[in-house]
Amino acid sequence: MGDYHSHGGGRGHGCCPTMDLMRSEPMQLVQIIIPIESAHLTVSYLGDLGLLQFKDLNADKSPFQRTYANQIKRCGEMARKLRFFGEQMTKADISPSAMPVTRTHIDLDDLEVKLGELEAELIEVNSNGEKLQRTFNELLEYKLVLQKAGEFFYSAQGHATAQQREIEAHQVGDGSLDSPLLLEQEMLADPSKQVKLGFVSGLVPKEKAMAFERILFRATRGNMFLKQVAIDDPVTDPVSGEKVGKNVFVVFYSGERAKTKILKICEAFGANRYPFTEDVGKQMQMIDEVSWKISELKTTIDVGLIHRDSILKNIGYQFEQWNHLVRREKSIYHTLNMLSLDVTKKCLVAEGWSPVFATSQVQDALQRATYDSNSQVGSIFQVLHTNESPPTYFQTNKFTSAFQEIVDAYGVAKYQEANPGVYTIITFPFLFAVMFGDWGHGICLLLTTLYFIIREKKLSSQKLGDIMEMTFGGRYVIMMMAIFSIYTGLIYNEFFSVPFELFGKSAYACRDSSCRDATTEGLIKVRPAYPFGVDPKWHGTRSELPFLNSLKMKMSILLGVAQMNLGIVLSYFNAKFFRNNLNIWYQFVPQLIFLNSLFGYLSLLIIVKWCTGSKADLYHVMIYMFLSPTDDLGENQLFPGQKTLQLVLLLLALISVPWMLFPKPILLKKQHQERHQGQSYTMLQSTEEMLELDHGHSSHGHGNEEFEFSEVFVHQLIHTIEFVLGAVSNTASYLRLWALSLAHSELSSVFYEKVLLLAWGFNNIIILIIGFIVFIFATVGVLLVMETLSAFLHALRLHWVEFQNKFYEGDGYKFSPFSFALLAEDED
Amino acid sequence: MGFLVTTLIFFLVGVVAALFVRLCCNGGPSTNLFHFTLVVTAVVCCWMMWAIVYLAQLKPLIVPVLSEGE
C-alpha cells in the first residue's frame, strides 16, 4: 500500500483526475534490512529493476573506511587489467567482436584469476617478442657490417698500416733524446716487428658520424684511421626500435690504451660494435650463418606474433562481457558501501526512495534474492515516514522524454508540482512554427527527421558525433516542429516564400478591368475574406509589410496573453493540489485580474477592431486609459460603454496590486501564530518545562520553521513587483514571434528572388544550375539550420521565462535510481 | 465559408482526433486524459492561429498596392 507524506501545510490530491506526466509519481522512503549472505544478490536484482535510489548512510566515512573497500580495489584492479587488454588489442588492430556469447554466469573470483593469468601470459609474450625483435635487429645490423665492411676493409687496412708506419717513424725520430733506453729496448725487443693494428667495426648513426670521427681523432691524437660508408636504407636500431640512418665504420688503432678509449667512445655514441674477421673465407661463412639465423628468428618472431594475436582474439570475444561484468560488480559494491552495517553485524540496512507503484516489484526482487541465495532469513521491507522532500520522477517514453529534458534543463520540478512538460509538448513546437512558418522548409525538416526516426533502432546502438547525438535525441521534437511548421506555412501562405492559391480564389481584384491604378490606389476586396490563411495577392506588394507587420504583432500579443493565462491557471491547479487557499485567493485571483484587465482587454480591443474594421488607434486607447481615463474617446470608440468599462478595468487593476501584496504575509503570520498558540501559554511556566517542550516541539518536525515577518513580506513584495512589471515586459517579449517570423520570410524571399529568379532570368542553363546550387546551399545553411536553431532558442526562452515564471518553482531534484541500464549509458 | 462554419470544422476535427487517439492508444484513464489534453491543446493552438489570420482580413484597413513591374 502506498503512502503519501505530509509536508508543511498538508498535501492532498483528488481535486482533479490524475493525468500522466502532470505531477511526479508518488514516492516513498523505504527501509530494507538485508541479511549479509543475500546482500550482494539483493543489490544485483535491485540494480536490474532500477527503481530504487539508495541514500548514502555512510556519508561521513572516507572511502577507505567503508565495508567493501577491498572489493572495490579488486574490481579496480580487474578494470585496469581489462584496460591493458583493450590497449593491446588496439595496438594489434583487433577489435572486440560482438559475438553473441552464451550468457554463462561468470563468477567474479574466477574472472579475477583468469584475468591475472591472461595478463601474465600477455606480458611474457610481449617481453619475449621484444627480446627476439632486438636480437633480430642486431643480426640484421651485423649482416650489414659484414657485407659493407668486407668491401672496403682491405683498402682501409692498407691505408691504416701506411699511416701507422709514418707515425712510428716520426716517433722514433723525435723521441731519441727522451728516454732513449725504453725506446731502444722496444726497438731492440722487436726490431722486425710488423705493424700490428687492431680494428673495431660497427654501425654509428649518421647524424653522430661527424662528431664520432672528431672525438676519435682527438682522443687518439690522430693515431687512428676511420673509414665510414653510409647505408642507403634506414636500419631499425635494436635498442630504440626505430628506423635510423646509419653508417658502417671501421676504426684501425694500435695499442691497448687506444683500444679502451675507442670502445668507450663507441659506447657513448651508441655505436653498435660487431666482430669482423680478416679471413675472407671465414667472412663468407659468417655471412651465411648470420643469414640463416636471421631467417630462423623471423619465423620465430612470426609464430610469436600469431600466438599473441590468438590470445588477444580470444580475449576479444569475451571483452565486452567481462567489461560489463566488472562495471556491474563495481557499482554493486559501491552501493553496498552506502548501506549501514547493523550493530549485530549480521545484516545491512538500506534506505532509499522508490516510487509507490514499484512496491510490489521491489518486494518481489527481495524475495527472489532470498530464495536464490539460500538464505534462512528474508529481507524486511518497510516504509518510513519523513518530512524530507522526495525526488521527482516522471515516467517518460521515447517521445515525451525529449520534451521533459527540455523542461528539466531549466529546473527539475518540485515534488508533485504541475509539470509544464505536458503543455510544452504542443506549445513549444507551435511557437517555433509561428516563427518559422514556411511549408516548403517544414517539409524539408520533416523528411530529415523521418529519416532519423525510421532508422532509430540502428542509430541508437551506434556511436554518433556530438551534434548528431543531440539531433538524434531530439528527433521527435523536430518532427513536431516540422508538422506545425507545415501548418503555419500554409497559413502564412509561404512555400519557399512563394504563395499559392490553394484554398479558393483571392479576395482582392483590380478596381476595373484595366488595372490602371493597381500600383497607386491598389486593389479592392471583391470577395469574402480568403478562407484559410493569408491572401496570396499580398505577396510582393508595396503594402505587404505594413499589413503583415500589423497582423503578426497583434497575433503575438494574442498568443502571448493566452499562454500567460494558461500559466496562471496552472498556478491555480498547483494551489488546489497543495491545499493552499492563501495562494488561490491572494495570489491567483489578483494575478488573473491584473493581467486580464490590462492585456486581456487589449486582446479584446484587437479582436473588436478586426471584426468592426474601425480605424481606432489602439496605442492611443491604451495609453490614455491610464493618463486620462475620464476623457471622451471620440473616434477611438470601438463599442458603446467603452469608457465605463475602461474605468472599471483600471480600478480592478489598481486594487489587485495591494491585493497581491498585503493579505498573504499578514495571514501567514496569523497562521503561524495559531499553530503555536499552545506554546505561548506554556512559556509562562518554569524554564525547565519550557526546555522540555522545546525539545518535544522540535521533534514534531513541521513546527520547526521560524517565521520572520519581514522576510516573508519582502518575498511577497518581490513577487508582486516581478509580476506587475513582468506583465508588461513579458507581453512585449512575445513580439519576438513577429520579429523572427518577419526575418524568416524576408530571408526566404531574398534567396528566392535575388538568387533563383535572377539565375532564371539569364536563360542560360549553366547559370541556372549554379544559381540553383547557391539557392540550395543558402536555404539549407541559413534557413534550415541557422533559423531553426534561432527559432528553437527563442521558443525555448518564451517557455522558460514567460510561461514558467507564472507558476513553476523548479527547485526539486531528479530521481536517479541505481540501475545497470543507466550505468551503461553513463560509461558510454 | 464563414467564421463559424470553419470553427465548427476545427471542433469536429478535434473530436475525430481525440476519438482516433483513444482507439489506437488506450492506456488507462490517466494516460487517456493526457492524450486528450495534448489533442485539445493542439486543436486550440491551430484554431487560434487560423482565427487570428482570418479575422484580420475580414475588414481590412489597407489593400494590396502592387509594385511596379507586376
Distance between the termini of chain A: 38 Å
Q: How many DSSP-defined strands of chain A? A: 13
Radius of gyration of chain A: 45 Å
Overall form of chain A: extended
Task: Note the main sheet of chain B.
Answer: none
Specify the structural class of chain B.
mainly alpha
The dominant shape of chain B is elongated
The quaternary state of the protein chains shown equals heterodimer
Helix content of chain B: over 70%
Quote the distance from N terminus to C terminus of chain B: 30 Å
The helicity of chain A comes to 55-70%
Beta fraction of chain B: under 5%
User: Mean pLDDT score of chain A, rounded?
Assistant: 85
Q: Determine the strand fraction of chain A and express it as a percent band.
A: 5-15%
Flag low-confidence runs of chain A.
1-11, 187-192, 689-704
Largest sheet of chain A: 5 strands, antiparallel
Unreliable runs of chain B: none
Task: Please give the most extensive interface between any two protein chains, plus how many residues each contributes.
Answer: A-B, 57 and 35 residues
Give the mean pLDDT of chain B.
Answer: 91
SSE string of chain B: HH
Q: State the secondary-structure class of chain A.
A: alpha+beta
